[in-house]
Amino acid sequence: LLSQTRSERTCPSCKVFFSHDPIKIVRAKGQYMYDENGVRYLDCINNVAHVGHSHPMVVKAGAEQMELLNTNSRFLHDNLVQYAQRLQATLPEKLSVCYFVNSGSEANDLALRLAWEYTGHKDVITLDNAYHGHVSSLINISPYKFHQLANAEQSKSVHVALSPDLYRGNYRQDHPDPATAYADDVNNLIQKAHEKGHKVAAFIAESLQSCGGQVIPPAGYFQKVAQHVHRAGGLFIADEVQVGFGRVGTHFWAFQLQGEDFVPDIVTMGKPIGNGHPMSCVVTTREVAEAFKNSGMEYFNTFGGNPVSCAIGLAVLDVIEKEDLQGNALRVGGYLTRLLEQQKEKHPLVGDIRGRGLFVGAELVRDRVKLTPATAEAQDIIYKLKEQHILLSADGPHRNVLKFKPPMCFSEEDADMVVEKIDQILTGTLNAPLSL
Amino acid sequence: LLSQTRSERTCPSCKVFFSHDPIKIVRAKGQYMYDENGVRYLDCINNVAHVGHSHPMVVKAGAEQMELLNTNSRFLHDNLVQYAQRLQATLPEKLSVCYFVNSGSEANDLALRLAWEYTGHKDVITLDNAYHGHVSSLINISPYKFHQLANAEQSKSVHVALSPDLYRGNYRQDHPDPATAYADDVNNLIQKAHEKGHKVAAFIAESLQSCGGQVIPPAGYFQKVAQHVHRAGGLFIADEVQVGFGRVGTHFWAFQLQGEDFVPDIVTMGKPIGNGHPMSCVVTTREVAEAFKNSGMEYFNTFGGNPVSCAIGLAVLDVIEKEDLQGNALRVGGYLTRLLEQQKEKHPLVGDIRGRGLFVGAELVRDRVKLTPATAEAQDIIYKLKEQHILLSADGPHRNVLKFKPPMCFSEEDADMVVEKIDQILTGTLNAPLSL
C-alpha cells in the first residue's frame, strides 16, 4: 500500500531499490539499516552515510545548531569560516576559496559557471558513462543519463572522451601507456572542437568513475589531460562527490591518487560531506573566484553555508579524524579487495576486481575474453543478497559491476559476511532465505 | 577579522547584509535575531524562517528523525508519502505528483525539465526583473541576474515579458484592463517566437514578484496568460519559492490570489518549506509526470525527500496550522499595510504601498509623477534602521522598494516599531543610535 501511494503521489521517474519487493527502512545505525520488522541489513552501498548512519556526534552537532540559529550567509558566522578553513586544510594550497551549496548537482553546475566565466569559453569535455548530476546543465554532460533517452540530442558544445577503463575500455592493462593514450583522446577532442571554431572551458571527471562502473583511471592520466586542457585555455574540474573524504584510504581526496604533482582547478564535493544532510561545496583558486566576481554578477545561495550545515560538516570531519575512518577504509578496503580477488580466482564469472579503499567494484562477465557483461547474473546476486539481508547494488554502463561503497565504519567481519554470501551464491550452495 | 577571513576563504561574489558593517548573528528565536553582544534585532526580512527562527517543534522533528534515520528515497518511508499527501491537500486536486529536491533552484530547474519533456518545445517566457535561481539554466531566465552582466547575451530561446507592475510598469492603475494588456504582451512574444520557428515550452513567473520589486500582478492576468500559453502547447509554472505557505494571508498559495479558476501546471516551492532546512518541492499533474517518466530517463535526487527533510516539512505545516500563522499574516500584514499607507499620506517619498499578508513593499520615489527611484534614500533608511536594531532590505530593479517578508509570527507591536522608526527617519526626528 505504501509503495502504491508513493508511486501515485510522488515522482514516478524515481526508482526504489529492489523494485519488485522494496524495503521499508525505519532506522539505521553505523553500517546497519533496520526494516519495520526489526530485521537488520548490512549496508554496502550508502556512501552518503559516510561516518555511519545516525552518527551521534553528527546528530548532536546538527540538533544543537538548529536550536540556536539556522540562517543564510548574509550574516557573519564563525561556522562558515571555520568550516572553509578546515576543508581547505585537506586540500593543496592553491585550492583556497569555498562556495557552499546544497547538493552535488548544485556544486557541479556552479563549477561549470566558474569555468565558463573564467575562460570565456563554452565547451565541456566529459567522460563516457559519466554522471555529474540531475540539473539540466549536468544532464547535458552526463552520458550515463542522456544515453537513456531514445531521442537524445547531444549538445554541440559537449564532447565525450573515452572512459579511462583499463578492463573494458579502448586501452587496457596490456597497453604500454594507457594514461597517455586516454589523454591523447581528450586532446583529439580539443583539436576537433578548435577546428569547428569552438573553445574548451573545462574537462570534468569524477576522480574515480562511480556510476560509470567503478573505473580507476591510470595514474598520470589527469596530469596529461590537465596539460592539454590548460593549453587550450580550459580548466580541470575534479568531481569528488562520490569518492572524496577519505574513502580511497591512502588519501583524503581521490584525485590525489594521480600523484602529488596533480592539482585540479576546481574540486566539487557532495554526498558524504554532511552524512546525509543536504549540503555540498565547490573549492577553487583565488584567480577563478576573482574572475567570477569580476563578472559583476552576485552569487547567493539561500541555504548554502548556513550554520547548521557547517556545524554538521565540521562534525563529519571531526569523526573521520577521531575514528580514523580513512585508515579504516584503507585496511578494510584492502581486506575486502583481497577477499574478492580470491572470488575471482575461484569463479570465472568474476572478471575484474578494482578498487581503492572502500570504493570497490567487481565486474561480472560471462566470458573473460569477450567480456560479455553478466548483467542478469549481477541482478540475481543483488536480489539473493537482499534475501540474506545484505544491501549491494550493480552499476556501470552494462549494470554488471557489483559496487561496494559502504559507510566508512565497515568492518572486516562485514567484508567476510558479504563475500561469503557471494561465494555461496556463485557456488550454488546458498541456503534458503532466512525466514523473518 | 572574521569578515576578512570570510572574504579570503569563501565566495567573493557572495554579499553580506550591511557590507560596510556586517552583523554577526549567533542565535535567533521567533522574529528576533541576536548578535554576539546579545543585542536583539527585529527581523523583517527572513522569510526562510517562516514559522519563526529555531521553532522548537521544527527543531525537535528534525533532531528526532536525524537520530533514527536519514537516507535516500530508494527505500520506502512513511514520511515521504505522508508529506506528499499533506502538501497536496493544500493544492488544487490536479496538482497531484510531488518531486522532492533541495533548493528553489533545483525545483525551478526540474520544472523546466518537466516542461521541456512534456511539450517537446524549448522556449521559455519569463517576466522582466524575475529571479528564479542560481543554477545556469535559471540565470538564463532571470533578467534580475543577467542584466548584471556587462556582456549579457540573452539566450535565443528565452523571451522576457513585461513585469505586470501596476505602479511603474507599462500599464498602470489608470489602465482600463491591465490584466489583458500584460497578458497580450505574453501572447505577442509567443507569436514572435512562432514567426522564428520557435515553440514555447513554458511561461514561468513568481505568483508575486519578489526580487523584482514586490509586484502584485492584477487578478485575472495568470488565467489569460495560461490561455495563450496553453494554446501554444506550453505549460504555466508558478514559482512559489518566496511567497507560498500562507504568507499572503487570504490563501495558502499566492497563485490563488488570481481566482479560484486558476490552476498552474507546475508549482515550485522552496525557502519557507523547511524553515531553513535545505529542501524544496515541485508539484505537477499526473500527465506531466507520466510524460517525464516516459522519456525513459530515471530521476534521482540524493538528498531529496529524505526522512529528515520530510519530518521537518511536516512539522512546518503543523506549526502553520496550529499557530494559525496564515491568519496572523492576514491580520498583521493588513495592519502593517495600513500603517505604511499612513506613511504614504505623510511623506512624499513613499510612492506606493503594495502587499498581501506579510509580503509587503513600500516603493520610494523622489517624484510621484516621474517616479524617480529613491535608491540612495532606501539604502539610508535600511542602514538607519539597522542602527535601531531592525533588519529590513531594499530590492527591485532600482533597489528602491523596502521589502517586508518577516517570519510569520511577526506581531502588530513589531509592525508599530518598524513603522514608527521609518516615520522618525523620514521626519528627521530619529534619536542617535542606541549605544550597545
From TrEMBL, chains A, B:
Any GO molecular function: ethanolamine-phosphate phospho-lyase activity
Cofactors named for this entry: pyridoxal 5'-phosphate
Subcellular localization(s) per the UniProt record: Mitochondrion
PROSITE patterns the UniProt entry points to: AA_TRANSFER_CLASS_3
Gene3D superfamilies for this protein: Aspartate Aminotransferase, domain 1, Type I PLP-dependent aspartate aminotransferase-like (Major domain)
Purpose of the protein: Catalyzes the pyridoxal-phosphate-dependent breakdown of phosphoethanolamine, converting it to ammonia, inorganic phosphate and acetaldehyde.
Complexes and interactors: Homotetramer.
Stated family: Belongs to the class-III pyridoxal-phosphate-dependent aminotransferase family.
Protein name: Ethanolamine-phosphate phospho-lyase
Gene name for this UniProt entry: ETNPPL
